[in-house]
Amino acid sequence: MPAHVRKGDQVMIIAGDHKGKVGEVLRVDPKAGRVIVKGLNLRTKHMRPTRVNPQGGVITREAPIHISNVQPVVDGQPTRVRFQVRDDGSKVRVAVRGGKVLGQVRGPSA
């Protein structure tokens, strides 16, 4: 099944602790069905000293969010996504709210 969000999309989290917050998708993991959103769902991790990082310490980084808990943002509002095949054979993502094209999924068949 094609993913409704892609790397670089502005998305809103629609469920969980960060509900209503907007951020940019940094990475999509289609196998696990998860996305990483910049600056949201932050988790701290205590790192022990190693040769690479002799100081050790506490690092903060984004944790994955399930893909069903995010929706693309169009004009400040979250929207569902439809997929349309154009006359030239290209497949595009179209926002249900407003009908705006979100980006090309696949180019025309050769």
Question: With helices defined by DSSP (H or I, 4 residues minimum), what is the helix count?
Answer: 0
Overall shape: elongated
What is the number of strand segments?
11
Low-confidence stretches: none
Written account of the structure:
The protein is mostly beta strands. 0% of the residues lie in helices and 48% in strands. The strands form three sheets. A six-stranded antiparallel β-sheet has the order 6-3-2-1-7-8, with no helix packed on it. A three-stranded antiparallel β-sheet has the order 9-10-11, with no helix packed on it. It has a two-stranded antiparallel ribbon with strand order 4-5. A hairpin with a 5-residue loop joins strand 10 and strand 11 (101-106). The model has no long low-confidence stretch (mean pLDDT 88).
Layout of SSEs?
Blueprint lengths: L9 E4 L8 E8 L4 E4 L4 E6 L9 E6 L2 E2 L3 E5 L2 E2 L2 E5 L5 E5 L5 E6 L4
Antiparallel strand pairs: 1-2, 1-7, 2-3, 3-6, 4-5, 7-8, 9-10, 10-11
Describe this structure in a few short sentences:
With 110 residues, the protein is mainly β. The chain has strands at 10-13, 22-29, 34-37, 42-47, 57-62, 65-66, 70-74, 77-78, 81-85, 91-95, 101-106. It has a six-stranded antiparallel beta sheet with strand order 6-3-2-1-7-8, with no helix packed on it. The protein has a three-stranded antiparallel beta sheet with strand order 9-10-11, with no helix packed on it.
